[in-house]
Amino acid sequence: MVRIDNIELGNFPILLAPMEDVTDPPFRFVCKMFGADMMYTEFISSEGLIRDAAKSVKKLDFEEFERPIGIQIFGHDIDSMVKAAQYAETANPDLIDINFGCPVKKVVAKGAGSGILNDIPKMVKMTEAVVQSVKLPVTVKTRLGYDDEHKEIVDIAERLQDVGIKALTIHGRTRTQRPRIPADWTLIGEVKNNPRMHIPVFGNGDVVSAKSAKYFKDTFGVDGLMVARGVYGNPWIFREIKHFLETGEELPLPDFSERVRVSKIQLEKSCEWKGEKRGVLEIRKHWGDYFKGYPNFKPFRIKLMEAQTASEVEVVLEKAREFYCS
After folding, report:
1. What are the residue ranges spanned by the domains of the chain?
2. Closest Cα to residue 34, out of 222, 243, 255?
3. Is residue 257's pLDDT more than 90?
């Protein structure tokens, strides 16, 4: 049984990565439906949270159905991170996660996200301050290092564990590497197999299918996996991975009708959480992923992008279902 402090996650948990503008509560809901063992909010700016900025505070929302869930925060100032962690704790999540992995330029330029990998002592000091400021378990998500010359994750992992984190997720790229470069799991395996490490170590990067999940599990011995891009348009991936790990059999891909059913659930949740106008607008980015690969889908996608109400979206989806399932 893998545990983060007293949170039980099963024998080999599959986690949903926090992704800005993707893993909002409506999308997390459908991922939980298909077996995500642990999920996180979109990453939240510490400065935005302590200023009580509406967008940041809204990201604290979650439903009981989503538990266990972590609130992920990022920032460059230690005092602000402490205050943000304490603010996040009042929302009563299961844990607080620190983002030391975001590679976005405007975040890195301020020394936040993976930018802090240029200052490991500050990274450790910030982590210790957050750990000591809250009662909830604190975890960290980070990368192998800032660049190829500074892949220091084995040492970083020990130092973060020493100041009290309860789990570590490692993305198998440096800050400067782009997603098209295959993730390097070698150092993730070294961290996991370091006899000094006793907290759970989760691997992230290129977990895009059940077969890739089994390869990373068997080859590097991690305690669990975190799925990011592999979940785009595919909340079923958690069920698929677990079934393959248990049986060695691949589940059939969800058919068009199932994709319509699940995307409509996400649409409903999106409208509930954001209001119909914004809910319909912000789910648009998911349509291309849900129905990727279907020939002649473009006319339907255009109509989905033009729809202004949930009922209009549902009409288009039903017409598409008739077209592909008749």
Report:
1. 3-247, 256-325
2. 243
3. yes
Q: What is the pLDDT of residues 78-94, one digit of tens each?
A: 999 999 999 999 999 99
**Highest CATH level, class, for 3-247:** alpha beta
Average pLDDT over residues 280-307: 95
Q: Determine contact, residues 282/274, Cβ cutoff 8 Å.
A: yes
- What is the mean predicted confidence (pLDDT) over 21-48? 96
pTM of the model as a whole: 0.96
Equal CATH topology for 3-247 and 256-325: no
Please report how many Cα atoms fall inside a 13 Å half-sphere around the Cα of residue 122, on the Cβ side.
Answer: 16
Which residues belong to the active site? 102
- For the domain covering 256-325, report its CATH number: 1.10.1200.80
Distance, CA of 217 to CA of 74 (rounded, Å): 28
Say how far apart CA 189 and CA 185 lie, in whole Å. Answer: 6
Q: How far apart are the first and last CA of the chain?
A: 46
